């Protein structure tokens, strides 16, 4: 049985272009902080990737600070700022902000003081895309970068977070994007790398993959490849809706990422669905997976007004560029079979 991977919002398969760039970077010996020829060769890889990401992100003139993850970038951006946020934010940001902002039934958040607030561009669980106001202090761009056409410059925000493994790059490398001239207090101190904002020798191999992945992802957007994925998402939801009249599709009334479907079947625990579908050959997710691998009811859905029962009965399917119509129809068929068996057991 061939497995079908439908958890791209958690991490995406490594792009061939990223793999090739990383393999080439592995043969470069020097430390990018060294001034000799070998060091300059390593530094050139880092700066090429910085340029690739800047171009793909529409961030000309902005500063790009490489980190080990978007989570580290969030700490660098948020520390000492006392920003306001909403409960729909990713934990990496939510851990640092005052959750005083509310979300409506679609997961949308209204911002009154952009300069003192953070607001994700798109939610990883529901796919809901926010209306990001100009002058916003910080936006988590990790899910939209590589899936939606936008530019850091025309968004008019102060800071943004991105991560390589969300768009086909390697795990373990992210970046903080800063409006040029904006200062942040270094959280990792030492040698003063990354313009003094993040010390430590740069992950040259990972950064090379990040740059190549960002460049390839931007081409995919320009070529309209995500339009096909959105059609597949809609085909999937129609098939699931035909199999279950009680299933709720979260955020369907709002703009969403083209690849994301979060749906609730009350009384059928999301964790159970994930395990059953995994045994059937499909990788999906439920709730919020924490570092221990345990699953808890989604606080994002709770913030949107769903009950504890509903929030614990949610799963997320997130498609990728390689997902086929056969994949989504096979998933819908197997899911419907599992739902029928669940109904028989519950009766």
**For the report, how would you describe the main beta sheet?**
4 strands, mixed
In total, the number of strands is: 14
Rg from C-alpha positions?
21 Å
Indicate the CATH class of the largest domain. Answer: Alpha Beta
Give the count of helical stretches: 11
String of helices and strands: EHHEHEHEEHEEHHEEHEEEEHHEH
Strand order of the largest sheet: 2-7-6-5
User: Quick one: overall form?
Assistant: globular
Number of domains: 2
As residue ranges, the low-confidence spans are: none
Helix coverage percent = 25-40%
Structural class: alpha/beta
CATH superfamily of the largest domain: Type I PLP-dependent aspartate aminotransferase-like (Major domain)
Distance between the termini: 31 Å
Average of per-residue pLDDT values: 94
Strand content: 5-15%
CATH topology of the largest domain: Aspartate Aminotransferase, domain 2
The CATH architecture designation of the largest domain is 3-Layer(aba) Sandwich
